Amino acid sequence: MKTNIFGLDTEGLAEALKPFKLPAYRTKQIAEWMYQKGAVHFSDMTNLPKKLREELEAAFDINRAKLVEQWDSSDGKTSKYLLEFNDGVAVETVLMRQPYGNSVCISTQAGCAMGCAFCASTVNGVARSLTRGEMLAEVLFIDDLLKKEDKKVDTMVLMGSGEPMMNYDEVMAFLHLMHEPYCKNFSYRNVALSTSGVVPGIYRLMEENLPITLSISLHAPNDTVRDKIMPVNKKWKIAEVVKAGKLYGEKTKRRVTYEYILIENVNDGEEHARELSHLLHGQLANVNLIPINPVTERALFRPSAERIQRFLDILTRQHISATIRKEMGTDIQAACGQLRNQYMKENDA
Ligand code: SF4
C-alpha cells in the first residue's frame, strides 16, 4: 500500500523521502509542487528527474479531497462544497465572497460531538477528526477554484463542523503548514478560530502567542440558558469562558469575537441583552449577533426583526461593540452541517 504524503511539512517529507537519498532541495521542490502548484501526481513535477518521478509515484499517494456536491446561493456570493476524503468521510467547506476578500470556512472534524442544540453538525455526532492534510485539502480545493479567476483565499475561519480545540494538535499543525513559505505563506492574522468554550484550549492557544483571532460561541448570557443549549457549559461555566476570552484578548491584543445566535424566547430577551452587556463589560470584544437559521430537527425559531434590533440597541447603549451578522447563503442552508446531514440522509449513510 502506498503512503499518503499530502499534509506533511518539509521535515515529515524529508523523513518519508529518506530511502531515496535525495538532496535536501528536492524536499522543498516536492512540497511546492503539492501545496503551491496543485500537483496531485509526481509525473506533473517536471523539475524532478523522470526516473525519480516514477519511483515516487510507485511509493506515494498525494491524497486530496473529491467534490461530491456543490450548492451556490442565488446571489452568487456563497458556495458550499461537500468534499469527500479517501475513506468516504465527507465534510462541508464554504467559500464566501466578501467585499474585503475571499473567505473560506473549513471544518475541523466530520460532524461534531459538542451537542449544541441549534447546530445541525452535531445531529449525528462526530465521525472522526480531520488530519492536517485534510484541512489543507479543503483550503486548496477552494484556492484552486479561485486561481482560475486570478484570485486567492484571503481569510480563513475555522468555523465549519467540529470543535477545533478537540482536534488541537492537527489544527495547529495545519495552521503552521499553511503559514510556511513553501505552502501558502498564510498570515496568522487572517485566521479566525472558533470554539464552543473549551477553556483549556483557549489557554493553550494563548500560549502559542500567535495573532489568531479567537471567536467564542457564547450564545447565552448566563449558565441557566447556556446549560440548556450548549452541553459544553456543564464542564466549563460561562464565567470561566469569558475570563479566558478576556485574557486571550489582553495577551494577543486581538479583539475577541463572541458569537451569539439569537433564538426566539430562548436567549433574545431584553434582560438577556442587559446581562450580556454586564458580562462583557470592559473587554476587548465584539459581539456578533446571528439570527438563527431554523434547524428543522429541533423546533428553534428566529426572533422578529424588531426583537433583534432591540437586542442590538441595548448592547450598543451599554457600549458593547456589536453587529448583526450579514446573512450569506441562507437559501443554500449554509448553517454548518445542514448539507452534510441532507447528503447522509439521501445516501443512507
Ligand atoms: S456549533 Fe460548533 S461546537 Fe457546537 S455542535 Fe455545532 S459544530 Fe459543534
Automatic annotation (TrEMBL):
The UniProt catalytic activity note for this protein reads: adenosine(37) in tRNA + 2 reduced [2Fe-2S]-[ferredoxin] + 2 S-adenosyl-L-methionine = 2-methyladenosine(37) in tRNA + 5'-deoxyadenosine + L-methionine + 2 oxidized [2Fe-2S]-[ferredoxin] + S-adenosyl-L-homocysteine; adenosine(2503) in 23S rRNA + 2 reduced [2Fe-2S]-[ferredoxin] + 2 S-adenosyl-L-methionine = 2-methyladenosine(2503) in 23S rRNA + 5'-deoxyadenosine + L-methionine + 2 oxidized [2Fe-2S]-[ferredoxin] + S-adenosyl-L-homocysteine
Spell out the catalytic residues.
Answer: 92 (proton acceptor), 336 (s-methylcysteine intermediate)
Q: Which Pfam families match?
A: Radical_SAM (PF04055), RlmN_N (PF21016)
Q: What is its EC number?
A: 2.1.1.192
| Cellular localisation | Cytoplasm
Q: Which cofactor does it need?
A: [4Fe-4S] cluster
The cofactor note from the UniProt entry for this protein is:
Binds 1 [4Fe-4S] cluster. The cluster is coordinated with 3 cysteines and an exchangeable S-adenosyl-L-methionine.
Which InterPro entries does the UniProt record give? Aldolase_TIM, Methyltransferase_A, RlmN_N, RNA_MTrfase_RlmN, rRNA_lsu_MTrfase_RlmN/Cfr, rSAM, rSAM_sf
Give me the Gene Ontology terms describing cellular component: cytoplasm
Please name the GO terms that the record assigns under molecular function. Answer: 4 iron, 4 sulfur cluster binding; metal ion binding; rRNA (adenine(2503)-C2-)-methyltransferase activity; rRNA binding; tRNA (adenine(37)-C2)-methyltransferase activity; tRNA binding
Major localization class: cytoplasm
Per the record, the coiled-coil ranges are none
Q: Which positions are annotated as binding [4Fe-4S] cluster?
A: 112, 116, 119
Provide this UniProt record's keywords sorted from A to Z.
Answer: 4Fe-4S, Cytoplasm, Disulfide bond, Iron, Iron-sulfur, Metal-binding, Methyltransferase, rRNA processing, S-adenosyl-L-methionine, Transferase, tRNA processing
Chain sites annotated for binding S-adenosyl-L-methionine: 162-163, 194, 217-219, 293
Occurrences of domain Radical SAM core (ranges) = 98-331
The lineage's top-level taxon is Bacteria
The record's listing under Gene3D superfamilies reads: 1.10.150.530, Aldolase class I (3.20.20.70)
Q: Report the record's Gene Ontology biological process terms.
A: rRNA base methylation; tRNA methylation
PANTHER family membership = 23S RRNA METHYLTRANSFERASE (PTHR30544), RADICAL SAM CORE DOMAIN-CONTAINING PROTEIN (PTHR30544:SF5)
> What extra comment accompanies this record?
Reaction proceeds by a ping-pong mechanism involving intermediate methylation of a conserved cysteine residue.
Family named by the database record: Belongs to the radical SAM superfamily. RlmN family.
Q: Briefly, what is this protein's role?
A: Specifically methylates position 2 of adenine 2503 in 23S rRNA and position 2 of adenine 37 in tRNAs.
Protein's name in the database: Probable dual-specificity RNA methyltransferase RlmN
Q: Which organism is it from?
A: Schwartzia succinivorans DSM 10502
Q: What is the lineage of its organism?
A: Bacteria, Bacillati, Bacillota, Negativicutes, Selenomonadales
In the UniProt record, the gene name given for this protein reads rlmN
